[in-house]
Amino acid sequence: MAEVNNNAKKSSDLVIVDEDELNQEVQTNGFVPEAKESFLYDNALIESLSFDHLTCFNPKISPAQPGMNLRVRSLGSGDYERGFLDLLAQLTKVGEISKSDFLKRFNAMKSCQGTYHVTVIEDTTTQEIIGAATLVIEQKFIRGCAKKGIIEEVVVSDRYRGRQLGKLIVATLIEMGKALGCYKVTLNCTDQMIKFYCSLGFTQEEGNANFLQIRM
Amino acid sequence: MAEVNNNAKKSSDLVIVDEDELNQEVQTNGFVPEAKESFLYDNALIESLSFDHLTCFNPKISPAQPGMNLRVRSLGSGDYERGFLDLLAQLTKVGEISKSDFLKRFNAMKSCQGTYHVTVIEDTTTQEIIGAATLVIEQKFIRGCAKKGIIEEVVVSDRYRGRQLGKLIVATLIEMGKALGCYKVTLNCTDQMIKFYCSLGFTQEEGNANFLQIRM
């Protein structure tokens, strides 16, 4: 646990992405070489997670072995070119976002140390992002200055359904929340998704399951 | 709007609280002099909010005029001594939190620029914190790199009920979310609180009002 927290701390050190350099690389060969890439958080955090105790996968998969030619990792600064935003567009409105907008938001998230854990699944044969979900860590004063995890924007490409990848990415975020010391992890979902999340251990607590919003 | 955002930006400049200095002040006179105090965000953000269009208050109150001897402001580094945690204990478990724990969490929140807006109501006659609520700003990629507001830990001291202060602090956070450019503000609440939040404009969206959690 102490080791995981160290990793998490290291993961959120600020690294400024050199946008010109990235753009140049992109023009050269279509993708950012991973050695030059900045990750939103340290991938060692994912590598530290154990799925040994989980019984909800059949066949058994884990972030370390997600399936043939797949990789689970932190969002990278080069994922703009790998279709990360096209994938989000399968979930909700994304709109026009330039590479510069993407990097600005990426760096703003990264500068909030230990807060944003945008996690993706990459098809390593095509370098395409085919799954994504976000764990936001909220710091509180209650419960001895506790942390709460919030899961947002869970999506798996429609071409990759039936491989337990939605379950895999959500279970990864739950275990990450535990490793980071959260006292709970919460989410909001549509009626159709209740069964899916409950199969992963989420519950609607009696008298306390109401999600309200105001759209501006 | 541009001006508000400037204020918001200024509000999150990092100011390190000198703990020894604070402790010394506390020993001297029981309270931290406000001139030496650090605020979580710039109070100019609250001062910029207009309540002119709101019809839900009778009699009319606002963050600028919350009632006799009351003040609405950002959480301050001296609010540990002003009973901020005792107030939170009226809402949920708080546990043992030292002044050092409090300041550590306060500074960690402050270093996440523009994220944590813990807002309090102070009784200026007793210097006691008698109301509090938090607006967390979550940064997203969806909707053109949008921001979402999340309201948490809303509490008014039982000795100050019946003065519209719960409504006042929640309405303040909604207007703050608008001023900071959020596309929506959300919250989770118990069954009993639905009516209260709906009176402030919140809705349970058809098919999308489910709040799920896993406790660790």
Automatic annotation (TrEMBL), chains A, B:
Keywords: Acyltransferase, Transferase
EC number(s) given by UniProt: 2.3.1.4
Domain N-acetyltransferase: from-to ranges: 70-216
Catalysed reaction, written as an equation: D-glucosamine 6-phosphate + acetyl-CoA = N-acetyl-D-glucosamine 6-phosphate + CoA + H(+)
PROSITE patterns: GNAT
Transferase in keyword set: yes
Protein origin, superkingdom: Eukaryota
BP term (GO), one: UDP-N-acetylglucosamine biosynthetic process
GO molecular function, one term: glucosamine 6-phosphate N-acetyltransferase activity
Known pathway: Nucleotide-sugar biosynthesis; UDP-N-acetyl-alpha-D-glucosamine biosynthesis; N-acetyl-alpha-D-glucosamine 1-phosphate from alpha-D-glucosamine 6-phosphate (route I): step 1/2
Family membership: Belongs to the acetyltransferase family. GNA1 subfamily.
Protein name per UniProt: Glucosamine 6-phosphate N-acetyltransferase
Natural source organism: Tigriopus californicus
